[in-house]
Amino acid sequence: MTVDTFTPEPRISTFEDLVRMAEMDGPGTKLLVVLVKVQRHQQKTANGDYETKDGEGTLMPLMVRDFILTPQTTLNDIVREADEVSTDWEFLMTAVMPGQNGQPAPEDETEPHLTRMAQSLTTGESLESFAFFTRSGEPVRVQAEG
C-alpha cells in the first residue's frame, strides 16, 4: 500500500485571505491590481426592447496598479484609491508578485506583469491564474469565452 500526503490548495474566500496568503511570501510582496469594468451584453426581447443578459459581458481594464503589501493593507484603502481614478469599475483582478531579498520588485519588472494582466482581459486568454473580487472583497469566478 502506498500513502501519499495531500496538501489541499489554500482556499481564498475573501480578499483578506488573499492578503494573508501573500504575506507568507515575505516582505516586499506586491499585490498587482487591474480595475475591471463590465460592459453588459444586451439581447432583444420578443417585444423589441433590449434587456441585459445576466452573467455575460465584456471585461475592460480601466487601470493597472501595484500595491506593496503590509499588515496594514486593507481592501478599503485599495477601493478608495481606485475610486479616485474611476468609480465605474466592478471587479479587482489580482495577482501576487513576491519580493526579492525582502524588497519589492522594481517597477520595470512589475509593469510587464500588469500589462499582461490587462491584455489577458482584452484578448480572451485564460483568467484562471488571477483572483477576482467585488468591491466588498467577495471572490468571483470570471472566465473568458472565445
TrEMBL record:
Source domain of life: Bacteria
Protein name in UniProt: Uncharacterized protein
Species this protein is from: Halospina denitrificans
Lineage of source species: Bacteria, Pseudomonadati, Pseudomonadota, Gammaproteobacteria, Halospina
